UniProtKB/TrEMBL annotation:
Species of provenance: Miscanthus lutarioriparius
Superkingdom assignment: Eukaryota
Protein name: Cytochrome P450
Family annotation (Pfam families): p450 (PF00067)
SUPFAM superfamilies attached to this UniProt entry: Cytochrome P450
Length: 355
């Protein structure tokens, strides 16, 4: 997946450099980063890049991603909405506000979309593309090959469910402008004018500290995903009956004064030289169901943030203070999406022109 992500990060830097007006441009980072992550994901799942209408268009999205994004715009608010039936289950039967119908409609639109992706990949494979030794095989391509040897396990329905799971796990990396200012010292080690690569990220210790400190203060999933107890147990003196829905308040754990000094301050240094090792940090969960994508996610966050800092100078415009207010939702969204002015860095102009 890393080569696909690196290519998409490079495309994002190129588009930001080329987007008008020349010099400095106001950028809505949330949109750019959402496009980037969905594009990389869609490319891994279905190799959609080739279907882009205009390769140099000012968007990081192929038509498939644009379509999926529209569906997400409808679906995500329904997921994070306070449904009255969560509190009064009897209301479920009456479908108050028509939420159930709306969810069913989006689910069937999503299934139709995934079926089209699978059919397109099947056609490509039948036409001889993506053979056994093709390293660029998509996730759907791999599963369609497995379908031939294990048709009972890899049915079209299973493939659709796995793709849907992967796409719904897409998250927006929480890059904040205040990090970028602190990260200025990151430019020193690179010296030579070349674009940061995924292999550079593990060597850039301070960049990783910035990512860790961001995930501490703003965990992407502040209550992780709901778990359920499979047996009666006692936790911290509290009886937890079997079948209880359990939400882990990672947001509070990451700001526990008993663990973290100066807990609301943004101090990446607290992670330097393994100093925070052994402290409770769990933005990716813990134990058997911990996120298997952690290493890839950390590398990707470092690469995206590092590229944005390496290639551009950032400013809020007129000394405006970034509004960090948190909104409502399962992924800790900001109330005010971050907009910033980005200006290509002089030292990187040749690199950016050549992208
Ligand atoms: C910033 C990026 C990411 C964050 C913050 C994140 C966080 C999480 C969290 C909190 C969970 C639930 C853990 C639990 O049950 O307690 C999870 C599950 C999962 N994540 Fe991630 N994740 C990220 C990126 C990724 C990536 C890049 C992949 C795949 C390449 C991925 C694949 C998964 C899968 C498959 C699960 C379900 C694991 C299971 O239930 O056994 N995640 N993630």
């Amino acid at each position: 997946m890393l080569p696909v992500i690196s290519a998409e990060v490079c495309a994002m830097a190129r588009r930001m450099y080329r987007s008008p007006p020349p010099g400095a441009a106001r950028v809505e980072l949330k949109r750019r980063l959402f496009e980037l992550s969905l594009s990389a994901l869609m490319e891994t799942i279905a190799r959609t890049k080739t279907s882009r209408a205009v390769p140099d268009d000012d968007t990081d999205m192929c038509p498939e991603v644009q379509e999926f994004m529209k569906a997400l715009d409808v679906f995500l608010p329904l997921l994070s909405a306070d449904n009255s039936w969560d509190y009064l289950p009897v209301l479920r039967w009456f479908d108050v506000f028509g939420v159930r119908n709306k969810i069913l409609a989006t689910v069937s639109a999503r299934d139709a979309f995934l079926r089209r992706l699978i059919d397109a990949e099947r056609r490509r494979l039948e036409e001889g593309e993506g053979g056994e030794n093709d390293e660029r095989k998509s996730m759907i391509g791999v599963m369609l090959s497995l379908q031939k040897s294990e048709p009972v396990v890899y049915t079209d329905t299973t493939i659709m469910a796995l793709c849907s799971e992967r796409l719904s796990k897409n998250r927006q990396p929480p890059v904040k402008l205040m990090l970028i200012k602190r990260g200025r010292k990151l430019t020193r080690p690179w010296g030579t004018p070349r674009l940061l690569g995924a292999d550079d990220v593990p060597r850039l210790g301070y960049l990783q500290c910035i990512v860790s400190e961001t995930l501490r203060l703003y965990p992407v999933l502040p209550t992780l995903v709901p778990h359920e107890s499979t047996a009666d147990c006692t936790v911290g003196g509290h009886h937890v009956p079997s079948g209880t829905m359990l939400l882990i308040n990672v947001y509070a754990i990451h700001r526990d004064p008993a663990i973290w000094a100066d807990l609301t301050a943004f101090r990446p240094e607290r992670f330097e030289d393994g100093r925070a090792e052994g402290l409770f940090m769990m933005p990716f969960g813990m134990g058997r169901r911990k996120c298997p994508g952690e290493a890839l996610a950390l590398r990707t966050l470092g690469l995206v943030l590092g590229t944005l800092i390496q290639c551009f100078d950032w400013d809020t415009g007129g000394g405006a203070v970034v509004d960090m207010a948190e909104g409502v939702g399962i992924t800790l969204p900001r109330v005010v999406p971050l907009e910033a002015i980005c200006k290509p860095r002089h030292a990187m102009l040749d690199v950016l022109k050549g992208l």
